[in-house]
Amino acid sequence: MSDVGSNSGLRFMLDSAFGPHLEAICHRTAQALAASGFGALLVHSGSPVPIFEDDQPHAFQVNAAFKVWVPLSDLPDSFIYFVPGSRPLLLFHSPPDYWHKPAALPHAYWTRHFDIIPVADREAARKALPVMAAATAYVGDVFPELASWGVTAVNSPELKRRLDFVRATKTPYELICLREASRLGALGHEAAARAFQAGASEFEIELAFLRACGLREQELPYNPIIALNEGGAVLHYQVLETQSPPQRHSLLIDAGAEFAGYASDITRTYSHRDSDFAALIRSMDAMQQTLCGGIHAGVDWRDAHLRAHHLAATVLRDADITSCSPEEAVATGVSSVFLPHGLGHLLGLQVHDVGGLMQSAEGGDIPRPPGHPYLRLTRVLQEGFVVTMEPGIYFNAQLLNAAKGDARGARINWPRVDFFRPFGGIRIEDNLAVTAGGCENLTRDAFHGLRPGFNRVA
Ligand code: GLY
Ligand code: MN
Ligand code: MN
Questions:
Q1: CATH number for region 172-450
Q2: Which of 71, 124, 230, 358 has the lowest tally of Cβ within 10 angstroms?
Q3: Ligand 1 atom 5: the closest Cα is on which residue?
Q4: How far does the centroid of ligand 1 lie from the alpha carbon of residue 254, in Å?
């Protein structure tokens, strides 16, 4: 995790905000437990998953339900035990181990709010737990001996639903962490853009990003998407070519940083030289900013998504890529050939945070609009929600070939599409904290903070 020791202003803010944050988490959890019929919560951070017939585990990914409590992303086999009205207990995995460096007991801005007991292993954790008198709900991976621990329920869907639903609304502490994750992400993006202009390969661009963020790849909230040229047409492009292509057209980089367990999720697209593609990026940036300008508490995200389709269809027609009206492009599915994903999602402890489709804490999902199967968020925005705003336009061969074979093909200007194919696609993604009357753009503010006036995307 990033070191806050060198930044006394940030450390002070975290120190002041953590106590009220934990009170809010305790309050939410007490309500969810009571409504689900439980008296206590036991959360596991997770165990390393062994690789088949190997003596190494897969990279450890912490259980987000554990990270809600403590900013520890790399600590397996630890537990939080919470009984409403009492201080939360952290059973901190600290094994005797001369092969690895055991985690030191933490002394940080959050530790004074917990009772912390070091435990050597799960058996020691079980012994360190108080007698579980109340009906205890367990949340986490199931391990073999859990059956003998005396918990009342394992991963109760009702309890998890109630806990997930409220995670959409961030506390002031969480907003501090998300701003810092954005700042680190913006540092990485600036370095990546410089590496692109200097002729770096995809792999070298990733190295520039990591170095500037000060994070290892496994500490990022997701594997960066770093696509030169036509690779930008692949939504979650996962290759990192080590060779720079002979001709450079474009870079699409979707990469975020993590701070204290909270993620940023940022995408920028660059054209190598001024061209129609650079003009298309500028149009998409203006369109993305129009969409950001329409975000405030009370907006139904499904409406924002459908509005994005109309605006993208206008950009496509104005760039002579399609030949029909925006209304017709949306009605006939032509806009979805170029914009095949959702407009955005909840962001927080997980990059695609939980609860995006939930109707209420009690149950039910809000359906996606027909024809938009990949939308990850259908809720009405509330103050404190943090969402991504990520419209895109892609020249993806698979989607274009399908459209060519049906009625959509006649509405597409194919020579113009062929011109844009080598550039791949455009996505511009910012992270927005919703307020009563608008939103705070965490991403643009972060770029601006690095270099006042810096807000360009192309
Ligand atoms: N980075 C994945 C996404 O934007 O949803
Ligand atoms: Mn995203
Ligand atoms: Mn992204």
A1: 3.90.230.10
A2: 124
A3: 352
A4: 7
